[in-house]
């Protein structure tokens, strides 16, 4: 692949100034609105049920607490849908990784509140009719207005939560998990009607307006940003496979040609959810990161075989249409705040680093790439990385071999760190590592991850650190970077996990 030298040079500019402490971002009002919605729900319960006063009477306490749990569960369900509705300004403010973690946290909280809601009302009905418990529960879960729908919806949500537990997810293919996860929308929709027909907190006009607006916003945002916008972009940009090239055993790069791709304002480091119109199963989307800087008419992704979707992608033929959702992710140079840049990648995590190296705004000597991989044959983009290093003055450190341990970011190859592959084409280049620093890196005690990293990159505190790889490896890098003196906010990550 021929590097676009003019493109790389065109993006070079002086590094931005460090951010001011207390800088305002859109994440601030977003968090405030989320908290306010929970406060509003509690206020509704207090106004309609009497709040703590409703707990003083034993015959009302169980039902009142059950109602509060149900209201909070409904509110959090809506919040978790909005978090992953792919609203562009929400994605840009918080980033996809953080949104996913908060979606998961809020989802589990909503689930347990829903279970508490169901359990408390079951206890209330049983206590109220101790001689006819089966009939009372039958009415509660089946025959009362819209309760059968609510019961089915609850069962669907239980299935989604069970399959979201990490132990269960490890046993599922991504495609299967993603399909099951979509049933959460059906579950939420099925529980919706009974709240308006049976919930005391929905009988007044203004409370109905509040809840209708909340549900309506979540529905509209999901429909607009997860269905309508991706459909329009796919139709307008008309992406088709241009070529498929093997990069390493089990790893291929796919180049797409499209129309006016610059209008999406895609940045290196971002990813799309891709669907390929090559036959049955096209509706299952998979997230893949750009592995080259985007241009006005081309995008490239690189895929390692890890399931049905990735294996299928390797068999694509030129001319195949592609549908896209995105771009997503905040692992971009837009978030750069410090003079230098450090890129760290493990395995297929090199894909966004490769794109960032090509067009990120850094001068010669300001960027370092540390790339850890297993065997030499699995060193994806090795030649391209060397070419970029030579063209843009990047310090390139290649660390082959398996990981030393699950808690370490280092490789456990036979070569000492001092003998690792350090490369800048011109030994007189400002980015070229001097012999003293190479020896210092190699002499560090390998059990001290932070000291090894500090010796490799002495000015790490003055760099933005971009990290991509498996979750446990990212965790090890974060810990080592903090120990080496890097500020927490200077570490930018993207996990290759789901």
From TrEMBL:
Residues 234-334 form the FAD-binding FR-type domain. The keyword Oxidoreductase applies. Residues 1-21 are annotated as: Disordered. SUPFAM superfamilies: Ferredoxin reductase-like, C-terminal NADP-linked domain, Riboflavin synthase domain-like. InterPro entries: FAD-bd_FR_type, Fe3_Rdtase_TM_dom, FNR_nucleotide-bd, MRET, Riboflavin_synthase-like_b-brl. Keywords: 2Fe-2S, FAD, Flavoprotein, Iron, Iron-sulfur, Membrane, Metal-binding, Oxidoreductase, Transmembrane, Transmembrane helix. PROSITE patterns: FAD_FR (PS51384). It is a multi-pass membrane protein. The chain crosses the membrane at residues 30-47, 67-85, 105-123, 146-165, 177-197, 209-229. It is found in: Membrane. It holds the Pfam family Ferric_reduct. Gene3D superfamilies: Nucleotide-binding domain of ferredoxin-NADP reductase (FNR) module, Translation factors. Its cofactor is FAD. PANTHER family: 1,2-PHENYLACETYL-COA EPOXIDASE, SUBUNIT E, NADH OXIDOREDUCTASE HCR. This is Ferric reductase-like transmembrane domain-containing protein. It comes from Streptomyces prunicolor.
């Amino acid at each position: 692949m021929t590097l676009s030298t003019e493109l790389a040079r065109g993006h070079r500019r002086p590094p931005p100034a460090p951010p001011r402490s207390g800088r305002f971002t859109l994440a601030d009002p977003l968090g405030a609105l989320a908290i306010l919605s929970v406060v509003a729900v509690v206020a509704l319960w207090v106004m309609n049920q009497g709040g703590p006063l409703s707990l003083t009477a034993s015959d009302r306490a169980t039902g009142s607490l059950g109602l509060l749990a149900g209201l909070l569960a409904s509110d959090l369900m809506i919040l978790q849908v909005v978090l992953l509705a792919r609203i562009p300004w929400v994605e840009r403010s918080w980033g996809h990784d953080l949104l996913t973690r908060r979606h998961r946290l809020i989802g589990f909280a909503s689930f347990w509140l829903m279970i508490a809601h169901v359990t408390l009302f079951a206890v209330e009905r049983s206590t109220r009719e101790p001689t006819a418990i089966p009939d009372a529960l039958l009415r509660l879960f089946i025959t009362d207005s819209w309760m059968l729908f609510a019961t089915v919806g609850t069962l669907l949500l239980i299935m989604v939560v069970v399959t979201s537990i990490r132990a269960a997810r490890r046993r599922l293919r991504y495609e299967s998990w993603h399909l099951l996860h979509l049933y959460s929308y059906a579950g939420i929709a099925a529980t919706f009607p009974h709240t308006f027909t049976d919930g005391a907190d929905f009988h007044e006009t203004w409370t109905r307006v509040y809840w209708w607006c909340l549900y309506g916003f979540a529905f509209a945002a999901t429909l607009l940003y997860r269905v309508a916008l991706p459909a329009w972009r796919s139709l307008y940009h008309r992406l088709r496979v241009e070529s498929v090239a093997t990069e390493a055993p089990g790893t291929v790069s796919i180049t797409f040609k499209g129309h006016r791709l610059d209008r999406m304002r895609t940045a290196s480091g971002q990813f799309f959810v891709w669907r390929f119109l090559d036959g049955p199963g096209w509706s299952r989307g998979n997230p893949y990161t750009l592995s080259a800087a985007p241009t006005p008419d081309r995008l490239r992704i690189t895929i390692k075989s890890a399931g049905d979707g990735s294996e299928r992608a390797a068999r694509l033929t030129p001319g195949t249409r592609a549908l896209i959702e995105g771009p997503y992710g905040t692992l971009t140079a837009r978030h750069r705040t410090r003079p230098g840049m450090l890129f760290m990648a493990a395995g297929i995590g090199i894909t966004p680093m490769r794109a960032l190296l090509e067009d990120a705004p850094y001068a010669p000597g300001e960027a370092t790439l540390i790339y850890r991989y297993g065997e030499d044959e699995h060193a994806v983009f090795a030649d391209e990385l060397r070419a970029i290093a030579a063209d843009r003055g990047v310090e390139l450190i290649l660390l082959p071999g398996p990981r030393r341990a699950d808690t370490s970011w280092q490789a456990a190859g036979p070569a000492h760190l001092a003998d690792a592959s350090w490369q800048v084409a011109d030994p007189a280049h400002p980015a070229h590592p001097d012999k003293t620093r190479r020896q210092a890196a190699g002499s560090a005690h390998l059990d001290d991850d932070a000291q090894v990293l500090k010796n490799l990159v002495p000015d790490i505190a003055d760099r933005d650190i971009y990290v991509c790889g498996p979750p446990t490896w990212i965790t090890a890098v974060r810990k080592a970077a903090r120990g080496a003196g890097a500020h927490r906010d200077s570490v930018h990550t993207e996990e290759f996990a789901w």
